[in-house]
Automatic annotation (TrEMBL), chains A, B:
Classification via Pfam families: MCD, MCD_N
Span list, region Disordered: 33-66
Protein name from the UniProt record: Uncharacterized protein LOC107468164 isoform X1
Any one Gene Ontology BP term: acetyl-CoA biosynthetic process
Any single Gene Ontology cellular-component annotation: mitochondrial matrix
Taxonomic lineage of the native organism: Eukaryota, Viridiplantae, Streptophyta, Embryophyta, Tracheophyta
InterPro entries: Malonyl_CoA_deC, Malonyl_CoA_deC_C, Malonyl_CoA_deC_C_sf, MCD_N, MCD_N_sf
Residue span(s) of domain Malonyl-CoA decarboxylase N-terminal: 156-219
GO molecular function: malonyl-CoA decarboxylase activity
Domain of life: Eukaryota
Chain ranges of the Malonyl-CoA decarboxylase C-terminal domain: 224-505
Species per Swiss-Prot/TrEMBL record: Arachis duranensis (Wild peanut)
Amino acid sequence: MSKKALSILMRARMRPNSNSNHSVSPLSLTNAVKQMQRHRNSREGQSAGGASREENSASIGSGSSEREFMHVRASMDSAVSMNKTEFLDDALNNFSEGYFSFSHENRRKLLLLLAREYDLNRSQVRELIKQYLALELPADKAQVSEEEGLFASFYRIERNLRHALKPVYEVLFERLNTHPGGLRFLSILRADILCILTEENIASLRALDSYLHEKLSTWLSPATLELHQITWDDPASLLEKIVAYEAVHPISNLLDLKRRLGIGRRCFGYLHPAIPGEPLIFIEVALLKNIAHSIQDVLEDSPPIPESETTCALFYSISSTQPGLAGINLGKFLIKRVITLVKREMPHISTFATLSPIPGFMQWLLSKLACQKRLAEGEMSQTLTEGSNLTFYEKILKPEEEEALMSLPKDLAMGQTGMETMFNLLTSTSYKWIHSSELVSVLKSPLMHLCARYILQEKKRGKALDSVANFHLQNGAMVERINWMADRSENGLSQSAGIMVNYVYRLGHIEEYAHSYFSNGEIHASSDLHHYVEQSDKKQ
Amino acid sequence: MSKKALSILMRARMRPNSNSNHSVSPLSLTNAVKQMQRHRNSREGQSAGGASREENSASIGSGSSEREFMHVRASMDSAVSMNKTEFLDDALNNFSEGYFSFSHENRRKLLLLLAREYDLNRSQVRELIKQYLALELPADKAQVSEEEGLFASFYRIERNLRHALKPVYEVLFERLNTHPGGLRFLSILRADILCILTEENIASLRALDSYLHEKLSTWLSPATLELHQITWDDPASLLEKIVAYEAVHPISNLLDLKRRLGIGRRCFGYLHPAIPGEPLIFIEVALLKNIAHSIQDVLEDSPPIPESETTCALFYSISSTQPGLAGINLGKFLIKRVITLVKREMPHISTFATLSPIPGFMQWLLSKLACQKRLAEGEMSQTLTEGSNLTFYEKILKPEEEEALMSLPKDLAMGQTGMETMFNLLTSTSYKWIHSSELVSVLKSPLMHLCARYILQEKKRGKALDSVANFHLQNGAMVERINWMADRSENGLSQSAGIMVNYVYRLGHIEEYAHSYFSNGEIHASSDLHHYVEQSDKKQ
């Protein structure tokens, strides 16, 4: 099969468009206020509908853009309010096509309008609430029939209230979900909403997002997702998605892609029937003799080991393709199903492990170091007058690490304390520390033990602070090993000083580990990992 | 492919089990009251939980049945309350298997328990409602930020209220929907609920049914249904379903089934991915030269016409297989999709028609005749003192029909009026009127014109009173012809005095007709049909 199109594509690498560069004009904010006022007015049954509509139109800007906006807005309104199927498909098509052709600013305006003018009929909700509060719970000794009658009133008003509390945009979402291409469109709508929310935190839009998120979670339940092995025989239109969306270790050229689908490699994706030819999430697997220590070993391993000699399936990359599905855990069952599939096809594989990034390590470490530095400065200047700061002050380095850092020649490292020196080294431009063997050897010990601490002990609401750690732990993995200089790419250095981690899925223990992590935050780890942390605990 | 199993099956015809014969013990009603009381107690935070539970168990009856009930109840509770996936599948399996093994009485008890003890946390709903009422809508001239803040409170409480108003059993439904076999199980649960509701009208169970109905409607949207042509090459396990569920014209033997899938015939079904091998609804089609006048012509047409000579596709039977999906319009898009498919494969087919039963005609006619008879008697005894009755009195026969009925010899027919005579003839045992050519010729005129009136003019809430008429009219069909002696089976005689109707789907007018029927109840009909009604209108 010729992959000409793909090859062309590879030269000009495709990435999903980011709209976040567009600026938001202050004009639109004024409109937003007017819209909200009009919205409120219409809800309250006051006049001003016609007048404010014109006023609003007039402030939009150029006439043709305004007409275009009004046209799409009208098709959206039809798609919501139409009662019969006859023109509904047309309305939905017009709406989605019009929306796709919109500028970022018009999309923003339309989404705000949807969020504000298509939410609830609040006066209806209040009316029902009053009826509800007027009901009294039946007395203890009432007759069955009376009791049934009273409960019937509860059920009736609760049902009506349930319906009244559904925003009007629910109809649009439901209709799009069953319309060809609609689910994909909804995912794009949500990506736009999330993008706008990073610019401005608008309550109505947040409510729209949260509602759409819930809906999408229901529609994309694991039962609706099909596990598909992606191979070189798949259509170029699907493979280009893999190239475009590989988020962990970018695919550099056509040969690289072919290798990732060839001997000793597997790639699996979840497809949804309503979004054909485009996996929502995919996972890349390498078949190896042992658990790899570095991503270079995986990506550059050439020629590959004959598959019959392999014993380890290494998950080295998981990427989701739809920014609009953020917050929906599609990977939850993917790993389990891939393990089952690989185990069935290749019984000689006995180890299922990952080679994973630690995306939050450096961010956590640097803020920790900066914070301690500030506390230390405060301590010195105020000479213990504010003892409270001391409780937050923590020597995060072992004495010998502190010593080694402080005894570095001054041309290599500057700092009043070991922590300050470390902070300065790690934030130096172009990661120049990794080019000095002396610096590397001095930094290795503190970075490794602090990394183990970060993964095993730093938590938020009882869950691992690191998002990838949390993902694998809640899937039932254990922490097996952390690897020094495992990802020397710029991305790897900036995320985790080049450290990577192997999580291992131990067959027969997956459910147990997932359960203990879920119920009391317990993180299973190898003795190696515990060793890093215990050593430093003892020394402190 | 050998159809041995099917052949065996045909001898002992399978029908879906009806549970409606089981009696309901008065004991269970007492339990129901106790349960409701316990329910209320626990909601109100009072004690008595443990005590009433024992008391309740004690009254159930035999120990082993009680243990069995408690076991399934416990698995249902786990299926609702379990937070992790690890044992959820087991709990769902235990619950559904246990439920299947239950007697009608145990099913009834469990469903009532589900309806009453797993609905809402009403005190939480009340708490949120109080918070909601405390909010005030923002004043007109408020600042954007304040306004946003206020709206944020609305959105937050509305969202919480939405969640609080979801019954606890929603979780069970959602989980079953994504569990293998769960959707089918839910359809059986609903069939049982509907069956119990025909025995007793229990408010909590009605609420459960209405909630499940809504859920099923969403999950079974046309987008999730796959159109499948059913052929003799399909597995016997699927074909046995066709035999079992054919509701309109029962399949009499294996040869009959083979003919309905052979030359000149088509059968299409809607399948749902979660209920494999079992169409939810299926439609049988005959390819003919002209629109058939009688079902005998269709079922006994042998040998069939060569398909290349046919011009008409006749839909002669539509059956749904799941009593638990009652009220969910699965056929809505089926006919449209079948028409598109047939037209594409056989461009020589230009007419799409049905040969349909008129299930409500005789019931309507007999109650009309009985009512007029009672009114006439009242009129005579009270000699016009109560004139109000007169407004309901109506001469539904034409003068010449009245005359012909009254001049029948007394050994053939008895009655003081034509209507009474007609009533007596139509309700005589074994439909003996159809064996007398004299009676048949006298009855034909009034039955045909009243049938046309019933289909075209008798409505309920603006829709055709007859359910099959309403089904085809809302799908966009028109009424083409009514056929005398078109179904001489006992079923056909009891439903509609043997009359059947041809609805025609006119390509290019389907959407238009559906719309005008939907928006103002307009029924499109041929001039023949109108003729029947106009004649009688003039004469009155």
